[in-house]
Design a protein that fits this description.
The chain is mainly alpha-helical. It is built from 13 helices and no strands. It starts with a helix and ends in a 5-residue tail after the last helix.
Length: 272
């Protein structure tokens, strides 16, 4: 891995750490309102300005970012665990197991997850906390998003299973689970890493989208989706241009993650 690739990973890690530590770094209480300081532009006291209620935008951005990062990590981890388990089992066992898993995978790929989310949100209890509701919906996305990583893992496991060292291990009577852990699993780590870097910003964006559409975290709780709701009113951007600043600060996270995934894919080589 060259210096440029390592730099991308360092930048991505630094961004994630900043957002995870957001509640500790926030200069103000994100829920504190000030009538005298409502809708103010960036100043030394409020670097990203204030919203219509006088709340510090930077504080709300940092605190809301920590929630988005947590959602992204949990969703990504669940998808990868399911993808590795199901795809690995399908590719390693083959036969009727592979056939059944592939049919289920095709079904999962055809599910319209947006309509599924709306339906789930409609049946959730009205007294359920907004953050809990968002977490339920994101986990639902994860439960129906394992199909694509599973297909990639299955194809890789099929290829690794035909290597000479795997055949030799079977010939010596090594248990199947040991063969998978010692010889197959290490060869999938590069694909899992690349998929993690691709899935992570998607889950963060899903949380932002849900909040933006009114299906996620609502007022007064801080969230990235709530920060960009004002962008729906285009006329406000002429008078309150600083509303674009949170979006500009979100972009490096998505761009760096995508570039890191591409770099990891290019440098990945299956274990031999």
């Amino acid at each position: 891995m060259n210096r440029l690739t390592r730099t991308k990973f360092i930048i991505l890690g630094a961004l994630v750490l900043i957002f995870v530590a957001g509640p500790k770094l926030a200069p103000y209480n994100p829920l504190e309102q000030s009538r005298d300081g409502a809708a103010m532009g960036p100043t030394r006291a409020h670097w990203l300005g204030t919203d219509d209620y006088g709340r510090d935008v930077l504080s709300r951005f940092l605190v809301g970012g920590s929630w988005s990062i947590i959602c992204g990590v949990l969703g990504t981890a669940l998808v990868l665990v399911l993808g590795l388990t199901i795809g690995g089992l399908s590719g390693f066992k083959r036969g009727w197991t592979d056939q059944i898993v592939m049919r289920i995978t095709e079904l999962m790929l055809s599910l319209p997850w947006l309509y599924l989310l709306i339906g789930i949100r409609a049946v959730l209890p009205l007294d359920l906390k907004p953050r809990s509701a968002v977490l339920v919906m994101l986990l639902t996305i994860a439960l129906v998003s394992w199909a694509r990583p599973a297909r990639l893992i299955r194809g890789l496991v099929l290829s690794l299973s035909e290597r000479g060292y795997v055949e030799a291990a079977r010939g010596f009577g090594v248990p199947e689970w040991k063969i998978f852990l010692r010889h197959i699993l290490p060869g999938t780590l590069g694909v899992l890493g690349a998929q993690a870097l691709l899935l992570f910003p998607r889950f963060v964006l899903a949380e932002v989208t849900l909040s933006f559409l009114g299906l996620g975290v609502g007022e007064p709780e801080p969230s990235w989706g709530a920060l960009i709701i004002g962008l729906k009113q285009a006329y406000l951007l002429k008078e309150q241009w600083w509303r674009l600043l949170p979006v500009c600060l979100m972009l490096p996270l998505f761009i760096t993650s995508a570039l890191s995934a591409r770099a990891l894919t290019q440098h990945y080589r299956p274990a031999r």
